Amino acid sequence: MTGKKRIMVIDNEEGLCRMMEAVLTDNGYAVTPFTRSFEAAESFQAGQWDLVVTDIKMPGMDGLELLQKLRQKDAAIPVIMVTAYATVEMSIQALRKGAYDMLTKPFEPEELLYRVKNALQHTRLVEENRELREELVGKFRFDNIIGASSCLQELLGRVEKLAVRDTSVLITGESGTGKELIAQAIHYNSPRKEKKFVAINCGALPASILESELFGYRKGAFTGAAENRRGLLETADGGTLFLDEVGNLPMTVQMTLLRFLQEQEFNRLGDPTPTKVDVRVLSATNLDIKAAVKSGDFREDLFYRLNVVNIHLPPLRERKDDIPLLAAHFIALQNCKFQNQIKGVSPEALEAAVEFAWPGNIRQLKNVVEACIAMESHDRITLPVLAQFIEVTPARAAHDPDDEGEYSKALSRFESGYIRGLLKKSCGNVEAAAKEAGTNMATIYRKIKKYGISKDEYS
User: Fold this and answer.
1) What is the CA radius of gyration of the chain?
2) CA dist 216 to 115, 220, 226, 290, Å?
3) Rounded CA separation 269/223 (Å)
4) What's the rounded Cα separation, in Å, for the pair 285 and 421?
């Protein structure tokens, strides 16, 4: 197959049909002409064409009827309608039935090329947007959130149920535990996934700027407001607004946000007319927001509006079984990004990583893995390199290679969690799990038996 765009041209006037074929072919397109609409309809198959250019007034099956038949086979195919009798009524009728554009006879070759180029560019942008949405949905599937610990799996089960329910969720947890990742997973697994996910850090902006960012403003509302501007709430209409560090919201903004949550409408700064939008609000904080309510720093009524459901993310020190999985994941990402050949983490370095408290949680682990790879001269992350970035006990730094007890335990935890993760992802299919791991089925069965895992739990 060539890289040329494939265009079907249909016109019962043989001379015009040949002219369009010649113009388009000379400009690098692969063109197939038809002078009979019935033949064109029979030949058309979804996925074989990038564009259709057809006359409207033709004997037998006219262009509008042909348009309907083509779009029944391929709803995304762009169609340019050609007519010598372009009326407003006819144009509206064609556009309603799915035509992309109208071209009026007589036309110059340059105009035909211009319309064709626009139609194909539009199709390319639509396809890119579709691929991007699919990539985002895939990226934020629940089985792509790394970890096999029981506390994480239980949490993800709750999150998966919440995703489809259009309710406010407050995500709590220490900094670096992945609160925004959970919020994105909720959005991209919800009915709102086709619309925007818009995030803002409520602690990063002063009150005046934060208010205008959220709600927008009208021209002349304040010095420097030279034009009307939509806020993030309007930008997220139909989708999800994520308020990160919501515990830092200034009191004035809390009042305005509360009104929106109650009424689903708000006023732009300087605009007396209310604006209504349909937005799901997710929020997150690493503060003790209940204490902030008691101290009067956070409105109690707003807290209850945001905290319809609470999801609390455990710190990494309570998910030690997930540390080897996360480290392997971050190593794989760096290998892919920079063409590194790091195979993993040495046994003693892995022990030290599992024992470390990780006050910065997953974010800190990710940064440390990236730093270690940049400094490492071996094919695995070694303890001396890791010790440059995290605290390692003197006993650990002077590790005796013959003392493998703790390493064996860490390895067992890793293997058990890894096998469980594979079975969950493959719905208990051992063959698929083995293929994912790059090993044979016998190995997977041995590990299942060794760790007392029931594959039926995942089927």
Assistant:
1) 30
2) 37, 12, 12, 29
3) 12
4) 29
* Extents of the domains making up the chain: 6-135, 140-314, 318-458
Q: What is the pLDDT of residues 194-231, one digit of tens each?
A: 899 999 999 888 887 888 889 988 887 777 777 888 88
Q: Read off the pLDDT of each residue in 168-186 and give the average, rounded to a whole number.
A: 93
Q: Please determine, for residue 87, whether its predicted confidence score (pLDDT) is greater than 70.
A: no
Encoded amino acid at 283, one letter: S
Amino acid at 15: G
At residue 352, φ and ψ (nearest 5 deg) are -65, -40
Element (H, E) at 6: strand 6-10
Pairing assessment for the beta strands 275-276 and 265-266 based on DSSP bridges: antiparallel
| Token pair listed for 268 | 């732009």
The DSSP letter of residue 322 is G
pTM, two decimals, is 0.61
Distance CA 77, CA 72 (A): 10
Tokens (6 digits) for 266: 């708000």
- For residue 427, the model assigns a pLDDT of 84
Interatomic CA distance for residues 81 and 102, integer angstroms: 5
Task: For the domain covering 6-135, report its CATH number.
Answer: 3.40.50.2300
Alpha helices in 61-219 (DSSP H): 63-73, 88-96, 109-139, 150-163, 179-188, 207-215
Residue 147, token pair as written in the block: 């970890």
The topology under which CATH files domain 140-314 is: Rossmann fold (3.40.50)
Buried b (16+ CB within 10 A) or exposed e, 226-251: eeebebbbbebbebbbbbbbbbbbee
Query: Measured at the alpha carbon of residue 286, what is the angle toward residues 410 and 293, in degrees to the nearest 5?
Result: 140
Residue 5: name the closest of 177, 124, 126 by CA. Answer: 124
